[in-house]
Amino acid sequence: MFVKSRRKLTYTYTWLIILFLVVFSIIVSAIFLGMAYREQQESIMSTLFATTEKGNVAIPDLSNSRGDDLYFFYVLDDQGNVLAGSSAYPQLENINIQKIIRWHPRDVSFRLDWQPETHVEVRQRVDIEIEPKLPPKAPRVLMAGERLLYVGARPVMLDNGTIAVIYAAKDVTFYYEVFRNLLVVFLLILVVFIMAAVWLSNSMSKKAMIPIQQAYRQQQQFLADASHELRTPLSIMNTSLDVIELENGQDFSAFTKEVVVDMKEEVGRMSRMVQHLLLLARSDAGSVEFEKASFDLVPKVRQWVQTIEAVAHKKQISLKAELPEQLAVTGDVERIKQLVYILLDNAIKYTPEGGTVDVALSSSPKQWSLSIRDTGMGIPEHALPRIFDRFYRVEEHRSREEGSAGLGLSIAKWIAESHQGSIEVKSALGKGSTFIVRFPIV
């Protein structure tokens, strides 16, 4: 139980640390992108609105442009004709124009364009008068790597009344590569942080569980001690009531007999609850030993059903068993018997007169199962997740009337899990409940 709780705490602490790192990374990345975007936009804006002393559009000379300068600058009319322009790579002019020729913004606009790796043949001119005997030079291939361009556009009307669009682009590949490397660094840091977070979270969860474990051990010790101390006086009380009833029972009045019967029922209920508490305390401490052996379960179940059949007949409940001819299993006979009695007792308690309780055994190559179905009052949907919790009772007043302390199903679950099995319940109000216990075949 504590292992699961500690694991949950470890997961919680780990996810919190990772979430903090992820949020921090997103904030840093957003700040970096915002600063780069603003810087490049301001640079392009200044170029788009630059004019000469006469008020004409200023055409920058990009023949000697560096990587952080403009990549290209063009003025195109509404027909796509180049009116003016300059480019850091004149050989790529056609490719650049093809990217912007269909973009006609109505206002100042910006966008990112990805330029794939490009190969362009550049033919070199040979002066025949200077070098008449030399053969023509082979074309030189210009290779331009992948680039990310940040392009801005502004519509403008020229002096002659022509409507044109000014396009300016900057190469922001450097920022893209920096951002990509930043992401790689963040991922590496995240991996390191995950390992550190798991170690740190595991250490923190261990420390957080120490007081809980101490309190739980004290509680279990108290339950064990109290159960031991209560068993003797309850046994004495039960024996004393039997002696009184045997010696003076014939002289009792009707009221006295009723009081004695009530006292014996209460003592019996308290004795069962003490036995259950002691069993659960021992199970938590791991001091309960299971004597597992191979046996045929069918005659055992038939015998247990016949034993409790008298209780069912008192409420006129039909108790049926659908059993195979043989079912060899491995387990602790006494514990499985206790589990069957708990489920049958519950089914009979909460089934009204004239109802039915069905017991069925089935098997498959990997597991065998026991199902007990009743036509009782059913269990509300909100109570199903807690039905196997200790001391949990769906209806407090009815459970007290039936003598239930809310421990039986907890013990049934413990027995099933101790056999590496499982127990589940399917129920609906007014339609009854079905408890299914599954055990692996070993």
From TrEMBL:
EC number: 2.7.13.3
Keyword Secreted: no
InterPro entries, alphabetized: BphY/WalK/GraS-like, HATPase_C_sf, HATPase_dom, His_kinase_dom, HisK_dim/P_dom, HisK_dim/P_sf, Sig_transdc_His_kin-like_C
Swiss-Prot/TrEMBL keywords: ATP-binding, Kinase, Membrane, Nucleotide-binding, Phosphoprotein, Transferase, Transmembrane, Transmembrane helix, Two-component regulatory system
Membrane-crossing residue ranges in chain numbering: 12-37, 181-200
Subcellular location(s) of the protein: Membrane
A single MF term (Gene Ontology): kinase activity
Catalytic activity: ATP + protein L-histidine = ADP + protein N-phospho-L-histidine
Residue ranges annotated for the Histidine kinase domain, each copy included: 225-442
Source species, domain of life: Bacteria
Enzyme class, spelled out: transferase
Record's protein name: histidine kinase
Gene source species: Paenibacillus lignilyticus
